[in-house]
Amino acid sequence: ALPICLSALELPIAHGEGKFVLADDSARRALWDNDQVALTYSHPDGFSPGDRLPENPNGSVDDIAGICDSTGLVLGLMPHPERHISCLQRPDWTHSRKMQQFGDGGTLFFNDVRYVHEAAPAGI
User: Fold this and answer.
1) How many CB atoms lie within 10 A of CB 48?
2) pLDDT tens digits, one per residue of 84-104
3) Minimal CA–CA distance to 55: which of 115, 83, 64, 73?
4) What's the whole-model pTM score?
5) How far apart are CA 65 and CA 58, in angstroms?
6) Which residues have a Cβ under 8 Å from the Cβ of 64 and sit 6 or more positions away?
7) Which residues contact 70 (CB under 8 A, 6 or more apart)?
8) Which H/E stretch holds residue 68?
């Protein structure tokens, strides 16, 4: 089973074009049915923006921001967590209440490393 994140992450978006699209509805359903949708764009309150700006910045189908392969070891995503490893990379870092050692991108990477480390002994 893939790890589940119950909280929202604030990650920079840094793409000039591109959005997640699928060839047909059966491929879209298969991603959801197989738990391969890893990240979605959302309102700050956690609700779906319904493929609309500004929370879904590129109109990706089903607000999908990232998917993984069937093992959960390969992740493809549109946001750029590498641009928010440190809390000092936030544009509001001088007056942010979210001052912690790592930014949300760092949290995402550390969770990824932990998942791979735990999955390897299981033979994945």
Assistant:
1) 14
2) 787 777 777 677 665 567 778
3) 64
4) 0.74
5) 10
6) 20, 31, 37, 39, 40, 41
7) 34, 36
8) strand 64-68
